[in-house]
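TA notes. Do not distribute before section.
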Amino acid sequence: MRMLLPITAMIASSTLLLADDEARMRNLENRLTSLECSQDRCCVINPPARPYPAECWGFYVTVDPLIWQAHVGGLPLATQTSGSTNFFNNVGSSRVKNLKFDWDWGFRIGLGVNTTHDAWDVLLQWTYWNPDGRRNFRSSSDSTNFPHVGHPARTFNQTAGQVDGDWKMHYNVLDLENGREFYVSKFLSLRPHAGFRTLWIEQDYDVAYTELSPTTNPVLPTNRHDIDQNDRFWGLGIRGGIDTQWGVCWGWSLFSNYAGSLLYSYHKVHHREKGDPVDANTTLRVDDFHHVGSAIFDMQIGVRWDWLSCDCCYHLGLDLGWEHHWHPGQNQFLFFVDDGMDGKFVTNQGDLGIQGFFFRARFDF
């Protein structure tokens, strides 16, 4: 009997502890169920930063005037000597002459909808831009231009008195994204988003070398050589990122947005060269079509002002900021590099960088 008393006490204690644990678990489950069933649960866990009532239409539009500048790496026109007409000299230093890219206007417009499903929003956005760049220069009595573009067998042992370079681009981007903007603190909101991107980029790169000297090139005894190149690019893939807004006061805030894309894409390049006069010895036509995997990186930063109506149905937002878009390896023009191996060329000579200012007006209704 004395041995049974401690055992009985231990069993009773264990039973009481188990009952207490079960009661605590039931209490925790009841509290979670109550939280999940609460009508205001969206305002407790990551409350939405754009709380639109169900009776509102829920649509919004965006309009962005853009003033951007492009830069493409790997597009030098010629090397110009200084102080001497010889490439190798001890008088002056030579300088590589590159294109000068202009600032050009573009636009971006979007149509979105704020849904009642956990305050998600869907946005369809189109960007269009048509920039250009050019440069023209001549040689002088103590300088000359050594061509960079064109097949070396066609410009062998020649210099150009006049160089004219011209570059144009058509830039079209279509983005479809789904996101949710929510507060993580009193003055900081985040909007993660994911979706799809497709874009079309067409580049034209034309170079003309005139007043070629000497004209005793046995392959190209002409006074002019033109190189025309065209690259048509298309891509389709996934895109994701995060938008951040840092509230200050009186409707003013700072924002910074980041996104990246991975695309399945192709380049369709046309390379044309011709001399003057045009004949079989002065004409070159080469086409290149290949698929690649492409990456794009986008960034925006700026200042914002917001106004929201008392019933939360109408919202006006104004943004002013700076943005940058980076397209690695976008320069796929053909550059022939060997006059002994006529078909030898290199590509992937530079990136496409786009940067500039933008102004955005957004209206929700």
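Switch to the second chain here.
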Amino acid sequence: MESMQSWAQRILPLALTTGRTTTLVFPYPIKSADRGSADVLAQIVPEASNVLRVKAARQSFKPTNLTVITRGGELYEFELSYQAEPTQTVFLLSSGQAKTPMVTLKGPPLNDADLSSLSKKVIGADKNISIKDKSGLVTAVLNGIFIFENTLFFRLELSNRSPLNYEPASVRFSLSDIRRGKRTAIQQRELSPLYIYPNDGKVVQPGSSCAFVFALPQFTLAEQKKLNISLLEKGGERNLYISLRNKDILKASTFSQ
């Protein structure tokens, strides 16, 4: 059995600053990243799901932690502290640095072929929800939530009524608090999609619409939590934001392969 001393040694120290971004590269795609304080910024790189960027949101923040779970079942824990001039800002992590050798993930993983086939079914399925946001004559509507085994599928439709093309730069999924007490630490957790369909960065042309499907590992939300979907425009500011609560997630329709 692994000793407590060996366990503690696998808590990795990490110094952050406000003026430079620190990059963490993991051996597997990131399943979740949970930071212990809003004084730390963390973002999974959309184009490389095994890369996490972290940065201090303010100087001299109190020490906190960061927990990362990969799709390989590995758990990494970092002890974060502020340092004005960190000596290193890029870290290539190995499986041997994980705090535990393996975390049990629900169910067997679906491969990309499975996720692509299921996403195509989601595109043609009936609507079961409608949550929308608008910006600059562009509308985003979340009109479908579906579940297959341990995977949730979110269908997001973009409609462009403007004379300009709309090209999404990134779509971010995160969990955050609804109510924040003065003494309550703000928790924000980034979720990394398992699959995006279509995955070719489609441009929504003027007068047209396009549906996207995002597959994520199954989860539920506590009453005080919400799911945030942030759609950011490439080279523009027509950004769109949709928030869901657990009652919305529970409207998910089941379907078979």
